[in-house]
Input
Amino acid sequence: MCAMRFGLLVVLVLAAACYEPPVSNSCTITCTEGVAGNCPGDLVCESGYCVGDGQVCRPTFVQIAAGTGTACAIDDQGALWCWGKLPGTSIATRIDATRHWDSIDGGGGQMCGIADSALYCWGENNDREVSGTVVGDVAEPLLIEAVGITRWVAVSAGSDYTCAVGDGQLVCWGSNFYGQLGDGTSIDRAIPTPVAANITDWIAVAAGDFHTCAVSSAFGVHCFGRDVRGELGVNGVGGSPMPVAVTVLGNPLFAVDIAVASQSSCAITPEQQVYCWGLNASGQLGDKRLVDPNNVPMTAEPQLASDVAGFTKIEGARVHYCGLAADAVYCWGEALAGGLGNGIWADTRVFSKVIAAGAVDISVGNARNEITAVNDLDLGCAIVGADAQCWGDNRYGQLGQGTATLALTPTEVAGDLRFTDVSAGSQHMCGIGDDATLYCWGSTERGQATGFVYGLANPRTPCAMNPTDPTQPLCDVGTPRALSYAPNPTHVTTGNTHSCALANGVTSCWGLGLPGGTAIKRDLAQPGGAMWKSLLHTGRDGQCGVADAVMSPMYCIGNVIGSTNNPVRVPQLDGFTALALGGNPAYGAFLDATGLRHGYGDNGKYQLGDGTTTGYGALMPIGTQTYSAISTRANDSQRGDANFTCAIRSTDQKIECWGEASRGQTGATDPTMPSMIPNEVPNLSNCTSVATGVEHACAICDGNVSCWGDNRSGQLAMPQSMPVNTVPRVIDIPLTGDPWVQVVAGSRFTCARSTAGRLFCWGLSEHGALGTGATGSNLPMTVLASQID
Output
């Protein structure tokens, strides 16, 4: 059986397959992306594994853990992957492959795991639930040691404390106000402290909000901490700082797994039955046919929770549980935020089967709701087959979808789509995936994303499918959609409302933005009978490309220099390396083979940067400064003028901008005055890519993505309460060893692509051009391939 799965799709629900690469053990060798020489032979590093040409490896998950806004999973190679609040990414990301992880558990703000029999914790540390030897939160797995323990076998992370089992001992540390550490006191502990019981054969533990339950091989289940509803299994004690035995009909309750919720507890017996005790007001003690909340609102006596046979694992959250029986997932109790995974978001009290079959591991957790100040945001996860699936709230990215969109039912944790090139229009984008597939997403107002017009009056994202014609969406496309217009494309470009792609010497365009264009894809005439060789990112309502002929002549269609409905030779642009069309009225900024800039068209807002407002009726050189890249953009109906241009100086790789500066987009200190001539943007050096929106700009400089100008739509990845920033701001995107290579911008959004092909977008696009399924975000979010045809 293959250790990893492969395929050209990059979501994690891929069929198993075996690929025979130049080196026989591909996808079993771990590596670090961006570091040369990681992989042997012809293999390259992709997603943390060595792969052959054109192959994609994705992990085979075997264990999963849900914490507070965070989820982690272990693959069959023992590598650890996490997503959500704690790692700060909404995509499953391998955070450690140096150790062989055996188990993992999530708590209130910390994660803990066992690797090679050693114990590690990291995350929030306000109550020393990670470690008392470290001040503040802990960013990476920290080794936890305890006297007399050399081999750890179980760990459970509670809301603000942690418990673990090793060499038969049970130790806890962190907050202890209710005696939940079980050491006989209510004193907080900074280091692992043994529980106060004459037991040396502990095998399992479950830490909750304010009470803990653990399992002894010889003496059965014991609980300690707060007791207000019978959750310790003892009537009327009010709580105990020391372990007390849980009994059934006077006999010890033996268990193979244990779980706790806020005021209840559950255990799986050796006969694989589930028993629960404590509060039952929300049905958390099981199937109401067996334990009716009206008849049994609470009980300290364990109750049979289900007549389903074969339970092997159980997990508890705030007021609900999920269990694994016969490869199916069952959930019960109350879930206000979709935690029961049954397709209902609101308050429900049911016992339901969430996943029919194939599950091998489960976990449930919560996240703190900043509005209610209560951990009432549900999260559930399961390993189904070898794939990770999660459901519930997603505002921290804990569902691993690359977005903040909730899920009422189990949803596969997605792998991020990788791109080799992207291009941004005003309200749509297109890109070439690393699987040699053309993808587009965003507005269909003029057919620019899909070749079909829809949603002129009422744009909606994400897209709904047309049941009678799956190729024609019924709305805008909120996430990347694979198109068949150009198989194995080599170039893709977009204008304001059109797109073009080059594949096998044929250029195809779609969208109504080109003069004479159609919404439906059309192949452009071959220039002079020759094949198309390349396309240039041209912009607005024009498109230019080079023919594979002597002298590599330039052919253009649309409004470039003059207007044409079909490709025509533009000899004055032969050899030019960069073309940027913008404005209304139209203007153009072009770079010739030496990097010298030329201008054409309107200049009423100083957008040609020659110090005057005189337009050019013909292509004219401007100044003597040379540039390596240039960018401008057309106007936006809601934001007005976009009459400014930015470029990278070839002499020192710094950024200059000129033209309209009303929102600080030229980097000028006084945004009330236009920049009549090029203005050097401060604090930027070693720049390699630049992009302009309507009133903002971004660049890759010194290895960082930096943005400046208008932020009313979050296009600088700042809160909209900070509407303008004239000084470039570094965008915080968590990537390691994967340098940025390209930045692009639409009207009011920005996207950046890494060397390995990751694509992050932020800002606002009512038509879904962010590619995340959402219309806006002032935090960078990963673009997914969740709508592959």
Notes: The chain is about 0% helix and 45% strand. The radius of gyration is 30 Å. The mean pLDDT is 84.
